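pasting for the record
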Amino acid sequence: MKTAIPINKKLFDIYILFTREPFVQYFTKELEFYSNGNGGLLGLISLDLTDNDYYGCILSRDISKQYRAELIVASLPTIEEAREWINSQMESNSIVFHDNKHQYFNIFGELSNHDKQHPNYILLRDSEALLSAKQVLSEISFHYKDIDGNFIDQFQSINGFDSRIWELFLFCFFREQFFSFERNHESPDFIVEKLNEKIAIEAVIVSRKTAIDKHTHKTKEEIDKLLLNEMPLMFGSALFDKLKKRYWEKDHVKGMPFAIAIADFHDTMSMTWSFNALLDYLYGYKYDYTFDEEGTLQVNPIKIGNYIKANGTQIPAGFFFHPECENISAVIFSSCATLSKFNRMGKQAGLGSDNNKLIRMGSYYDHTPNADKAKPIVYEVDENSNETWSEGVVVFHNPNALIPLNPELFDDRVAHCFFRNEIIHSLMPKVFPYNSFTQNLIFTK
């Protein structure tokens, strides 16, 4: 009887994103993925790239609910033998891996904090429409190291939910980019390593100052006005708060690139339109464009002077040109690191409810020569979708960095911006969303 049920790679990746060590990519190629039907056991068949034969691996959950390798067989000459081995090992359904050094980390655990819970946390916990996001976040959190000891409380709270979502997204992003984590210090939030190069990263968000109102959406005129002054100041305030911490002076950070990872959660849907405000603020330039007689796009830089705070204080544009900002190697940003991202990643992996349909709409970078506008895209999220954690991430490199961040540490799914001679030069991935919106539909039977 066949007990090994094939599953798609996207689901397997959700389960073992943090079990799989990054270095394995250099000597094996994952080929087929299996479950025993109830999620208790997973099976993997890999090709040994050195000997050109096959590995089989059975993984089971430990008491922390992390998947760990329990049985491994190597040097199988054919993939058929590997399939037979996987099936035979799953028949008993009795393999259990016990590891008493790790405890179950339940971010949805009851804390008796109902009056302090973020409304989006309550929606995530209880709504069928966000079930795939809930399942994905649970799987990720099983592997997350709670350095401060208050992650679950903050994850559920009004003041902490958005920040913790951003941190969990970054956790997935860096792992997908094949970084290993060194999380032995309370700050900065991450130290990651790849190919013997380390990066220190501190996460921050532009946080909400007003009550959540999901039924209010700003007009284009309101957005354009905010982009001129108020939104750049919001990004500036968040970045300067982290600059004042002087993380680069810590003994365990000295000598490595230091980046600030920032996301905008200050208002409902604000991350869909605030991208340009960060770009303007970091480099201190806006850009106009014209077309010459041959139809070639001509970009014209316009230097920004000062932004003006409500009290009249003038704040100069160009964060990377401020004193001490040479210690910031780069600023990392994504407009997509929201609950909808986790929901889509789960949906395309086959998680969530069959009653739930997700329609994604967005504005994507247009690679057509001389294109001056973003390209719209609409699609239904299903198991044929191929969104990645890296999609939508952009690294803004500091032209004055004392320790530059090596762009080659990231693959071609990540966008990069460099500043030279008043012009921003961008390396854009094949797929790059400036923003997106996910329509979440529930169908009742």
